[in-house]
Design a protein that fits this description.
It is built from 13 helices and 10 strands. By secondary structure, it is an alpha+beta fold. The strands form 2 sheets. The protein has a 6-stranded mixed β-sheet with strand order 2-1-3-4-5-6. Strands 8-9-7-10 form a 4-stranded antiparallel β-sheet, covered by helices on one side.
């Protein structure tokens, strides 16, 4: 965990009693997901189902509690971290869909951290906003490209949150710690695959504008999709293709895993997606072509998701079967071709 210096000793996660987490965090495995993140595991790590056991093995005391407290969002969690040196960090975070989490409070200070920037937190024993100007001037004089900055205060304490595209060098962090009234400086790395940029500009925001640009520039759908993603990310066309191939590979793998039917699902349900294909082979299912494939592939991904397998949370984790089912299922005869030629997948998605 990047916000504490030492090894984690205790983690307490509190869910608001009237919020969605209170009744669903165990069934939806939010507890395992949260702990795996604190352990530093990647979202695609196959060890995630065993994160609670690993935390126990590492001597980390993990506690989940349901409490009454003020929460403006239904998916709110308050997290208290204590490390081996008894340093305490208190966070308030929101689950905002699509596998995304936003930290909205740190040690009582308002903030907005979505994992799409390098985040620098400078804590002060003063609440004068002029301190932010001093910090920004110091950083800029050291060559730091500041994307955004935010000042927050609580009583006579202040927090300056600086967002950057690249990590602030350790030597610069050490210089900041020497500034008058600075009590702590912490830096957190991004976790999203695409880092946001102040100068990022997407070429269109509506379907009509997309079609207009495509007509004017004689672009096919895969080209306009690549054009958009390159503008949003700052990546090259080749990098966009590589990422799309990676995403398509994970989606295809989740379909195949589901159709194999060897996952362990909790509760009374068992894998059933493969039964559609078997019924088709026996001739006991109405032959409706691609629709049966779409249904079975969508079911397969949902079953993998239910068994804590690896899926792509697009557009959200709950609807992760839509794209693999509708797009890959419809294009079943060309799936292998699309894996080799990502532009076809881009065109299908658009």
């Amino acid at each position: 965990m990047q916000l504490v210096q030492g090894r984690l000793k205790k983690v307490t996660a509190e869910f608001e009693s009237n919020g969605s987490f209170a009744m669903t965090y165990k069934g939806q495995k939010s507890d395992k997901g949260l702990v795996s993140g604190l352990l530093g595991w990647d979202p695609g790590d196959p060890r995630i189902p065993y994160s609670l056991e690993e935390a126990q093995r590492q001597g980390i005391d993990v506690v989940f509690e349901i409490k009454k407290f003020k929460a403006d969002h239904p998916n709110t969690v308050r997290i208290t971290l204590i490390d081996e040196f008894d340093e305490k960090v208190e966070l308030t975070a929101l689950s905002v869909g699509g596998g995304m989490v936003e930290i909205v409070e740190i040690n009582g200070f308002a903030c907005s951290v979505a994992g799409d920037f390098y985040e620098l937190f400078v804590f002060f024993k003063d609440s004068e906003k002029e301190l932010m100007d001093d910090v920004k001037k110091n950083l800029e004089s050291m060559g730091v490209d500041i994307q955004y900055s935010h000042f927050s205060k609580v009583d006579n304490r202040g927090l300056i949150n600086i967002k950057t595209e690249k990590p602030v060098p350790d030597t610069t962090v050490m210089e900041l710690k020497k500034l008058n009234k600075v009590t702590q400086v912490k830096q957190v790395a991004p976790v999203l695959p695409v880092i946001s940029r102040r100068s990022s500009e997407v070429p269109f925001r509506t379907a009509s504008k997309m079609l207009e640009i495509a007509r004017e520039n004689h672009m096919q759908l895969w080209e306009i999709a690549t054009f958009y993603e390159a503008g949003r990310s700052g990546w090259s066309k080749e990098e966009v293709f590589s990422k799309m191939k990676q995403i398509a590979t994970i989606m295809t793998s989740s379909v195949q895993t589901g159709l194999d039917g060897k996952m362990k699902m909790e509760g009374i349900l068992r894998p059933q997606s493969m039964l559609i294909g078997k019924a088709e082979e026996k001739g006991t299912l109405i032959p409706v072509g691609a629709i049966n494939t779409v249904i079975s592939w969508a079911m397969a991904v949902l079953e993998v998701n239910s068994s804590m397998g690896i899926v792509v949370a697009a557009p959200t984790a709950g609807s992760c079967s839509v794209l693999p089912g509708a797009v890959l299922g419809t294009a079943e005869p060309w799936v292998l071709v699309m894996m080799r030629r990502p532009k076809h997948y881009l065109r299908q998605v658009v």
